Amino acid sequence: MTGRAPAGPLLTADTVVGFLRDRGVLDGSPATAGELAGGVSSVVLRVDTSARSVVVKQALPRLRVRAEWWAKRERTLSEAAALAVYHDLTPGRVPEVVAVDESLMALVLQAAPPDAASWKSVLLTDPHAVTGDVPELLGETLGRWHRGTRGRPELLDRFQDDEAFDQLRLTPFHREVQRHHPAVADALEACLDDLTVRRDCLVHGDFSPKNVLVGGDLCWIVDAEVAKAGAPAFDVAFMTAHLMLKSVLASRPRVFRAAAGRFAAAYQAEAGAEAALPLLGWHVAALLLARVDGRSPVDYLTAARLDQVRRAALRVLRGTDPSTADVWDALEER
């Protein structure tokens, strides 16, 4: 299997400084290194010197989860290419790519300030934070990415490999829930067809609060390891579904629904009238169901809350051409 192919040894806090010095990223000045928490699909190491700080990300062949879950390590190269595109389009919203090592499948990035935090952790601690300007900033940024890469075959040719997206999204999400819920298999199959056939623009593939770093004026989007040419609805649905899950946790549907609306409006204003998002309601419902009954369920909802999400998603997937508003309505029904 491609995901099991060797690509050199995995870096550690003990070896990463030498790796960076050998490649001219760091000089010989003192450096500190440590592994960042939360890396499920990659080794993520931060290195600081008095002159600069970088993050080194190296894709794992097997994800750090209980189930056996493999993915191709070459996704690091696609991530590096995608982040370079995004940095060109929105330099203030993405860290700079410093270096790429193809032999080790390692990516070196500009590091965020040490006090930066994931927007997910902020929302879990303080749900009221969703009323800030982050939703608009994310909508504007995503809209600019989709508009800036739409209709550019010379750019999109670089992102035609679907394997990592299939391994880390379609199979553990959509196909897994098809197995558990055959009654909505047709709706899920329609979503799969849309996501595999369309090649409209460069899709991030993991556009969620955990991959948004915030702090002060900072708002960065990171982790594009499943980026591919695809259907823009996936990114919009991914963020929307995550905001819905946070709303269920916080029991504040109106606040999160308003934030999702601001995100969607900012996206549409930036992406333009050509940004078609067919099946958006189904895509959102499919992703909600995937985070309940897929291979990677969310870990912050109780069994009762998970069942609330499951019932709402199934109700929407049984419908015909639902809107995002229909998904919100279903979630708010008890």
From TrEMBL:
Domain Aminoglycoside phosphotransferase: 35-260
Keyword tags: ATP-binding, Kinase, Nucleotide-binding, Transferase
Pfam families in UniProt: APH
Keyword Acyltransferase: no
Record's keyword annotation contains Acetylation: no
Molecular functions per Gene Ontology: ATP binding; kinase activity
InterPro entries per record: Aminoglycoside_PTrfase (IPR002575), Kinase-like_dom_sf (IPR011009)
Record-stated family: Belongs to the methylthioribose kinase family.
Entry protein name: Phosphotransferase
Top-level taxonomy: Bacteria, Bacillati, Actinomycetota, Actinomycetes, Jiangellales
